[in-house]
Write a structure and sequence with these properties.
- The complex is a heterodimer of chains A (about 120) and B (about 290).
- Chain A has one domain (about 5-120).
- Helix content of chain A is about 60%, strand content about 10%.
- Chain A has 6 helices and 4 strands, in the order E-H-E-H-E-E-H-H-H-H.
- Chain A is globular, with a radius of gyration of 16 Å.
- In chain B, the strands form 2 sheets. Chain B has a 5-stranded antiparallel sheet, sandwiched between helices.
- The chains are: A mainly alpha (about 120), B alpha/beta (about 290).
- The interface between A and B is large, with 51 and 42 residues.
Chain lengths: ~120, ~290
């Protein structure tokens, strides 16, 4: 079992971590490392801009492939992240956990909106 | 067919005008449409306007622009789409009108960073934190258009700095499936355009197999802190969040449909807040 540091900007070749398809590149590397039994540390060194779309693709979707326990073991604390970047990452992770526990919530939310308007 | 721009500002009336033009163009059998630009048009509204004109040009209409044509439209490159030469923006208060295809991610990134980096001439003196929040908001909106719209004619962007009002407006428009169309296609749920926008702004997502929907929530949180405004138009739905409305979302139905989605972010450029968070996250307790 090894520890890998994945530098977001180095992997995607860009300081702007904003696009979902770039997040997908990170996801592939991280998922592969975890399957091999390695631990992964995400480095935010050099990140200039960061979006939830990128993080959902890079990290969020891991929660659909691995259990929360597996990821807690495999994902080491991120490094070189600003406080704001950590807050965004945490929000994405918490949302991902909720999403995979209940993927139908958004369909139900749609029904609720229709129901709200029917009552008016 | 002839139409003229009277007073098109970012807001309900401005978008009523835009969709009325779309409806006229659809209904008209004339091959040529002459649009006279004599009145006021908020420059960021070049994005939805340009989108509509492009759509009809692609359908074979000959779009001709005429009239006084304020300098700003020569400077921001809007008129060059119609064969009218652009002029240099020496004061650099315009944020150029551009069209991007779905594959132009890098071009959009370069465009945003070149216009919104710290201390760039012509931009209001925004704090680095505010600039970063603004840029990230625009990337979230663009990303939504790329991921969800299925637009075939591109994504249109334009902005404008209003120094006297300390305001910076930016609009991103697509000619895609609309939020309502996306929900119908992905969830099989029939909603009105207004309901669809509300559903999206409440942080929901149609994406299967991967979480999403956070981007629009983050933008709303940022705009509330900043004292700015966000306007979303999709189909015939109009949705606005601003301090003027006491931060209660305002939902209206447009007289006609916009053939896609437009998101406009208006930033209070005089905001000096640090955007430093009151609570920090422990990196060992994220996952």
């Amino acid at each position: 079992m090894a520890e890998q540091t994945v530098s977001l900007t180095a992997l995607i070749g860009n300081k702007l971590c904003t696009a979902a398809d770039d997040g997908e590149k990170v996801h592939k590397v991280v998922a592969s490392a975890i399957r091999q039994g390695d631990k992964v540390c995400l480095s935010f060194e050099g990140v200039e801009d960061l979006t939830s779309a990128f993080l959902n693709a890079a990290v969020g979707q891991l929660y659909g492939e691995f259990s929360e326990e597996q990821l807690r073991e495999a994902l080491l604390p991120p490094v070189a992240a600003t406080p704001d970047e950590l807050v965004l990452l945490k929000r994405v992770v918490d949302r991902a956990k909720d999403f995979f526990k209940d993927p139908e919530r958004y369909r139900r939310a749609a029904q609720e909106i229709l129901g709200d308007d029917d009552k008016k | 067919m002839k139409a003229s721009i009277a007073d098109v500002q970012t807001g309900l009336d401005g978008f009523q005008w835009i969709v009325a033009l779309e409806s006229e163009l659809l209904a008209s059998i004339d091959r040529t449409c002459e649009l006279s630009i004599d009145g006021w048009l908020d420059a960021n509204m070049c994005a939805p306007l340009g989108a509509i004109l492009r759509r009809h040009a692609a359908r074979g209409k000959n779009i001709v622009l005429s009239g006084h044509m304020p300098d700003i439209f020569r400077k921001n490159g809007f008129l060059s789409e119609f064969g009218i030469a652009s002029t240099k923006d020496t004061h650099r208060t315009t944020i150029g009108y551009r069209r991007f295809s779905l594959k132009d991610k890098e071009a959009f990134q370069v465009y945003i960073v070149s216009h919104f980096k710290p201390k760039i001439r012509g931009l209001p003196l925004m704090t680095d934190a505010l600039l970063r929040k603004f840029r990230e908001s625009l990337f979230e909106v663009y990303g939504n258009a790329v991921d969800h719209s299925e637009t075939e004619l591109g994504i249109f962007a334009c902005g404008q700095h209003y120094p006297r009002d300390h305001r910076l407006d930016f609009s991103i428009a697509d000619l895609g499936i609309s939020i309502r169309g996306r929900i119908l296609k992905d969830l099989g749920t029939e909603m009105t355009p207004s309901q669809a926008i509300r559903w999206a702004m409440e942080g929901n997502t149609t994406r299967k197999g991967r979480p999403g929907g956070l981007g629009l929530q983050l933008i709303q949180e940022f705009i509330r802190l900043n004292g700015g405004r966000i306007v979303v138009v999709s189909g015939s739905g109009y949705w606005e969040l601003s301090e003027e409305q006491s931060w209660k979302p305002r939902a209206e139905v447009l007289r006609c449909a916009f053939p896609g989605t437009v998101v406009t972010i208006e930033v209070n450029a005089a905001d000096k807040k640090s955007y430093r968070l009151s609570s920090e996250v422990d990196p060992t307790r994220i996952f």
